Amino acid sequence: MTLSSIIADVRGNERTLTVYDPTNPDDVSELERHFEVQNVEVNEATVPEGPENFVVLQDDGEFLAAADLDTLRRAVTFESGLVEADDFGTTQVPEILKHVDDTTFTAYGKRRMILASREIEERAWRTGGGELHAGFQRLSLFRDQWDLYTRIADRGVHVHAYGLPDWEPPETGWLTVHDEDAAEVRDSWFVVFESGDASDCALLAEEREPNEFAGFWTYDDAVLGDVLGHLRSAYS
């Protein structure tokens, strides 16, 4: 088993994102651009009575989440501050993004990967406890996230950081460093949170082109087990 083979085995389920009575067509276009590389179909609808500019996510007709259109648009266009965040107490991931799970994607750029990572990092911060496994490709990239991960660790989360050994992190009790000179570590971006409850989730992708990633994120226990099982076996 490899990280690449796990990605190949995961298949996404198509979901539907319905935008009700949008007042600005450009907002819908922004959502379409964001979700076009995922198995999420975006469409529009009208209701006789009710609020304008709201969005509903469904899975085969089953309600998953709803959000204000502007809030979701700001998040997916990186206006909400999630990409630059270093304090989760001042940011919030829209609930809809938390329900686009078991989803495969292609052609994610670096900023979208950061946004997806923030969802899992925030979940670890809010839950507290457990383990957060993060692959930075190179440990020098972990240095740029040090303050953020310190805040996560302050909540009782133990962090495992993976990457090529081009920087030596400070020794601390909340951190286990896996300085691995391995091809799949260099080429993969992953964030996996395990706490033993419904908060568990994972993002795993591989870099197919410079700063362009393909992979998935999931809340499925079996897939999480495969990812963590491989990491623990290969890089104990």
UniProtKB/TrEMBL annotation:
Cited InterPro entries: DICT_dom (IPR019278), Uncharacterised_Vng0742h (IPR016954)
Tree of life domain: Archaea
Pfam families, A to Z: DICT (PF10069)
Domain DICT: 98-207
Protein name per its UniProtKB record: DICT sensory domain-containing protein
